[in-house]
């Protein structure tokens, strides 16, 4: 394919004839695949670590996203190459399983592919490289288990959890508020956690945002925040000790399911029909009043007549509340979602200590706070920020911190960050390579070299001399036999990550190594790419 221009300067493309096109096979195909994987990793390499750069992503609609989250960047990139799509899937898998480390896993996979290319050029068979990588990954994972530390935390001692979440937030745009956001994330997770079963349901944590205010105004609400207001402006804005009826049935007369037609030819018939309709509304409102409801939350809307009747009967109501929000309100208040008015009973009402309608700024935006609920195991993180992009990026950052706190509750083993875990694992892998007499030892050594790409990228992104810094830290680890020396990205003055309180979860780091190895093995075993039109 070639680009050419006619005599008027208009561009046109010259395509080769299909029969003259050649398809890559064997070693050429593998090298092409490796190049595609490396290209994706190169994009994310500069976003790694606390001093990593951000990427600006523009959608076809003109929407702009600013982020340094690996999963978000790859999700919004328009990727056509099949191998590059595998790298996108790799980042997504890390995000689904762990929630953090989405950039590191792609950078590591790119490093493994780069090392594999050198081995292929030396004539080593791809299967041998894949087997060597598999052996090395097991050695690295076992070594991380060996150097990991366990720490105990409780409801009163949250500092270890907060420090680990702060490490995650250090590499985000929101790092200036990392302490307060980490505390919010940890308190939210502990509010919904079942510590006996070591299980956390993140669906019970709702993350809501509203443009305006400062990032420091972000707060944790032990209840639910709904982006709705009272259906009538004259309804009370504050209800204490609320009894909440949660309805999925509309405030309107029932409609026949068959096709129907009503002919009205006299005023009396119209009056009768109107009275009947009004009676329906009266009965619905009265049923809510009879069971003791002081607030009605409805999934559907209701017309002005029903709204006026609710206001006259002093029964505040909220309409058009989404299904997910309705479920969270039911969980938080201990109520039941009622599909028909006939099934409404006092036992099915939800209970909340305070329902409050708040307005924000001069835009007349209003939101409903449902607090002091009967069941506090549903919470809301309410984010404020200067613009929509900041709020969206804060939501992604908070999600990563929530996932890290959840992982620590499931497994409280940690390794130290700053690349110290990778350097330590690299030393262990290189030492183990000498014990393998076959060709695999070259692949095992290459795996050890690839692990060092993470601390090198951290040093490079922090403005340090990458090779010099890595060599100094590695020799320090070997000399002192101490696995917690890492890259001093924040220029604190010490390489000891234990002193800097830079933690990462063990399962997150192990998952990174295992996932990256699996994807690289898959890429190395592909020696031909066949499109549907070729068979």
Automatic annotation (TrEMBL):
GO cellular component, one term: chaperonin-containing T-complex
Organism annotation: Lupinus albus (White lupine)
Gene Ontology terms, MF aspect: ATP binding; ATP hydrolysis activity; ATP-dependent protein folding chaperone; unfolded protein binding
Protein name according to UniProt: T-complex protein 1 subunit epsilon
Gene3D superfamilies from the UniProt entry: GroEL (3.50.7.10), GroEL-like equatorial domain (1.10.560.10), TCP-1-like chaperonin intermediate domain (3.30.260.10)
Transmembrane segments: none
Family named by the database record: Belongs to the TCP-1 chaperonin family.
Function, as annotated: Molecular chaperone; assists the folding of proteins upon ATP hydrolysis. Known to play a role, in vitro, in the folding of actin and tubulin.
Subunit structure and binding partners: Heterooligomeric complex of about 850 to 900 kDa that forms two stacked rings, 12 to 16 nm in diameter. Component of the chaperonin-containing T-complex (TRiC), a hexadecamer composed of two identical back-to-back stacked rings enclosing a protein folding chamber. Each ring is made up of eight different subunits: TCP1/CCT1, CCT2, CCT3, CCT4, CCT5, CCT6A/CCT6, CCT7, CCT8. Interacts with PACRG. Interacts with DNAAF4. Interacts with DLEC1. Interacts with SPMAP2.
Catalyses which reaction(s): ATP + H2O = ADP + phosphate + H(+)
Location in the cell: Cytoplasm, Cytoskeleton, Microtubule organizing center, Centrosome
Keywords assigned: Acetylation, ATP-binding, Chaperone, Cytoplasm, Cytoskeleton, Hydrolase, Isopeptide bond, Nucleotide-binding, Phosphoprotein, Ubl conjugation
């Amino acid at each position: 394919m070639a680009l050419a221009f006619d005599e008027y300067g208009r561009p046109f493309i010259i395509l080769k004839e299909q029969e003259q096109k050649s398809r890559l096979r064997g070693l050429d195909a593998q090298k092409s695949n490796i190049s595609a994987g490396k290209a994706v990793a190169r994009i994310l390499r500069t976003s790694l670590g606390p001093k990593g750069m951000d990427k600006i992503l523009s959608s076809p609609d003109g929407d702009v996203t600013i982020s340094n989250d690996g999963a978000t960047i790859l999700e919004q990139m328009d990727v056509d190459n099949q191998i590059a799509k595998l790298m996108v899937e790799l980042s997504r898998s890390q995000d689904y399983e762990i929630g953090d480390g989405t950039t590191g896993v792609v950078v590591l996979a790119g490093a493994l592919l780069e090392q594999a290319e050198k081995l292929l050029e030396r004539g080593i068979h791809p299967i041998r490289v894949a087997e060597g990588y598999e052996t090395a990954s097991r050695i690295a994972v076992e070594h991380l288990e060996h150097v990991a530390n366990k720490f105990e935390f409780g409801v009163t001692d949250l500092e270890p959890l907060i420090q680990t979440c702060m490490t995650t937030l250090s590499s985000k745009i929101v790092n200036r508020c990392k302490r307060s956001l980490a505390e919010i994330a940890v308190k939210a997770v502990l509010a919904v956690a079942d510590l006996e079963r070591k299980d956390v349901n993140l669906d019970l944590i709702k993350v809501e945002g509203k443009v305006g205010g400062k990032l420091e105004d972000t707060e944790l609400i032990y209840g639910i925040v709904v982006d709705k207001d009272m259906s009538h402006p004259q309804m009370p804005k504050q209800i204490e000790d609320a009894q909440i009826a949660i309805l999925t049935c509309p405030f309107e007369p029932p409609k026949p399911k068959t096709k129907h037609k009503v002919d009205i030819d006299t005023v009396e018939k119209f009056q009768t029909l109107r009275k009947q309709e009004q009676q329906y509304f009266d009965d619905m409102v009265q049923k809510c009043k009879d069971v003791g409801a002081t607030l009605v939350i409805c999934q559907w809307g209701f017309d002005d007549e029903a709204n006026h009747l609710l206001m006259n009967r002093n029964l505040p109501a909220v309409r058009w509340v989404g299904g997910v929000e309705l479920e969270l309100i039911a969980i938080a208040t201990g109520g039941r979602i009622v599909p028909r008015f006939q099934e409404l009973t006092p036992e099915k009402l939800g209970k909340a200590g305070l329902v409050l309608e708040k307005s924000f700024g001069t835009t007349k935006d209003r939101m409903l706070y449902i607090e002091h609920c009967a069941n506090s195991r549903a919470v809301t993180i309410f984010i404020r920020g200067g613009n929509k992009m900041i709020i969206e990026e804060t939501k992604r950052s908070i999600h990563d911190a929530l996932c890290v706190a959840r992982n620590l509750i499931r497994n409280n083993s940690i390794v130290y960050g700053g690349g110290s875990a990778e350097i330590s694992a690299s030393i262990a892998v290189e030492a183990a390579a000498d014990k393998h007499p076959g060709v695999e030892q070259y692949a095992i050594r290459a795996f050890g070299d690839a692990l060092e790409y993470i601390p090198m990228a951290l040093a490079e992104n922090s403005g340090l001399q990458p090779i010099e810094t890595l060599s100094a830290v590695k020799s320090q680890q070997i000399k002192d036999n101490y696995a917690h020396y890492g890259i001093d990205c924040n220029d604190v003055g010490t390489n000891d990550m234990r002193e800097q309180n830079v933690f990462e979860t063990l399962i997150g780091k192990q998952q990174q190594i295992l996932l990256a190895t699996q994807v690289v093995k898959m890429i190395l075993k592909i020696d031909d790419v066949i499109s549907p039109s070729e068979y």
